[in-house]
């Protein structure tokens, strides 16, 4: 197979909702001789920040001299971005070879579950486990896809579980309250292991403590057991990491947004509880050199100054809004915005509205873990923006490539990682 043919094969396994179970995943991994158990794992979940936290953990291990796997989702441009070693994507040929080798096991699992075959995300997760096991890595950072309890990644026995925070997202799957969602996410906490958490809502903290106590997990909680002190939310961000065991002063963080300081602290806590030796110097270097595409990423298009951020739920747009206040005070942006159908678009728009001078609204059809038709149609999005931010100029963008070719400035691009992926692809020289 070519990479395109491999993607087409995987596309046959896009799931319909309501088929969440770990039974299929465990069956598939049994067929593959349990690669998920071959490498020590740090398992990272949460509503927002889990991608950035995963990336920073991986960077810290890498700068300490370890060979580290990183599995994240979704991808922005290439499917191979999801599976990395030392933050380098798996080669196209290796991706194809692993999938081809797995096909007999996939076929057997499909025959066993004809009505609910393995899903696209399950297959990619299994591929990551196989690749990491073959490469005999020191450690792998595995990001949860959705929730925790029935997520395909929740077959690992991690050295450390990380729960960044809990907010309202994927409510149609996880529940309609923060507490329901927390009950799902806390299921990545494993007996006798460590859990590092950035949750702050009292009811959620109580649920995390309850679960950790019940299974005998050692809890390391932000604000109680470690914290961010002396935060200077400029560029670079400067902060002190403080815990009972250590203080690392004046850490510099290249990523924008004060929320990233908390994510960085979670990453430090996870590394500290992992049992691996990572020096303060490795932590400093990792944070000072961290970059993560689509997370408050600065770019230039022609003469236009552009800020690209994949904030795609209210918790993330709140963090983005605070970052805009910190780093771009009194700036109002021309804003290219698209959003998935299942998101709370009005809440996202309300949060961003004070920072928007002009809405440029669009939609797109892009391959996602759910297929292609997942974005909110343009006419519905325009109606929501008119109601939520009345009186603000609105322009429909039917062709994103043409819009970017004459982009206004300063331009903010946000609302969806799939929109960000399309823009990143355009920046690399492709039409979208």
Compute the separation of the termini in Å.
Answer: 25 Å
Largest pleated sheet: 8 strands, mixed
Q: What's the total helix number?
A: 15
Unreliable spans: none
Output the strand order for the largest sheet.
4-3-2-5-1-6-7-8
Radius of gyration: 21 Å
- Could you tell me the number of beta strands? 17
The helix-and-strand class reads: alpha/beta
Residue share in helix: 25-40%
The average pLDDT score comes to 93
Description of the structure:
The chain is an alpha/beta fold. It is 39% helix and 18% strand. It has 15 helices and 17 strands. It has helices spanning 3-11, 23-31, 50-63, 92-112, 120-134, 171-174, 178-185, 202-215, 259-272, 280-288, 314-327, 345-352, 378-388, 400-405, 417-427, and strands at 41-45, 68-71, 83-85, 88-89, 139-143, 160-163, 194-197, 218-221, 227-232, 237-242, 247-253, 297-301, 304-308, 333-337, 356-361, 394-396, 411-414. The protein has an eight-stranded mixed beta sheet, with helices on both faces. Helix 3 packs across helix 9 and helix 11 (314-327) runs parallel beside helix 12. It is globular and about 60 Å long.
């Amino acid at each position: 197979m070519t990479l395109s043919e491999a993607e087409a094969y995987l596309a046959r396994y896009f799931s319909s909702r309501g088929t969440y179970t770990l039974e299929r995943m465990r069956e598939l991994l049994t067929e593959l001789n349990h690669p998920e158990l071959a490498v020590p794992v740090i398992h990272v979940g949460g509503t927002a920040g889990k991608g950035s936290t995963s990336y920073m953990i991986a960077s810290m291990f890498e700068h300490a001299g370890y060979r580290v796997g990183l599995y994240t989702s979704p991808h922005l441009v290439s499917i191979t971005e999801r599976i990395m070693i030392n933050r380098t994507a798996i080669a196209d040929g290796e991706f194809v070879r692993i999938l081809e080798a797995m096909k007999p096991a996939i076929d057997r699992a499909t025959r066993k579950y004809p009505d609910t075959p393995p899903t696209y995300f399950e297959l990619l997760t299994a591929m990551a486990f196989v690749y990491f096991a073959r490469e005999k890595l020191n450690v792998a950072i595995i990001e949860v896809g959705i929730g925790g309890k029935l997520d395909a990644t929740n077959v690992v026995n991690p050295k450390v579980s990380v729960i960044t925070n809990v907010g309202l997202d994927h409510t149609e799957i996880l529940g309609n309250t923060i507490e329901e969602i927390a009950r799902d996410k806390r299921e990545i906490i494993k007996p006798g292991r460590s859990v590092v958490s950035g949750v702050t809502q009292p009811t959620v903290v109580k649920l995390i403590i309850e679960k950790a106590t019940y299974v005998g997990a050692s809890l390391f909680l932000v604000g109680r057991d470690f914290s961010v002190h002396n935060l200077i939310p400029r560029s670079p961000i400067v902060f002190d990491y403080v815990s009972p065991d250590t203080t690392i002063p004046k850490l510099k963080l290249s990523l924008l947004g004060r929320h990233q300081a908390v994510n960085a602290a979670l990453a430090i806590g996870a590394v500290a509880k992992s049992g691996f030796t990572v020096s303060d110097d490795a932590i400093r270097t990792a944070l000072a050199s961290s970059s993560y595409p689509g997370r408050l990423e600065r770019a230039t298009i022609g003469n236009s100054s552009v800020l690209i951020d994949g904030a795609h739920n209210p918790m993330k747009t709140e963090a983005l809004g605070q970052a805009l206040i910190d780093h771009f005070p009194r700036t109002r942006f021309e804003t290219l915005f698209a959003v998935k159908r299942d998101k709370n678009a009005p809440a996202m728009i309300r949060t961003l509205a004070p920072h928007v001078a002009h809405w440029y609204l669009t939609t797109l059809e892009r391959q996602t873990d759910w297929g292609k038709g997942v974005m909110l149609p343009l006419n519905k999005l325009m109606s929501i923006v008119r109601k939520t931010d009345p009186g603000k100029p609105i322009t429909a963008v039917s062709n994103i490539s043409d819009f970017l070719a004459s982009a206004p400035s300063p331009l903010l691009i946000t609302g969806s990682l799939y929109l960000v992926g399309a823009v990143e692809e355009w920046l690399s020289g492709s039409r979208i």
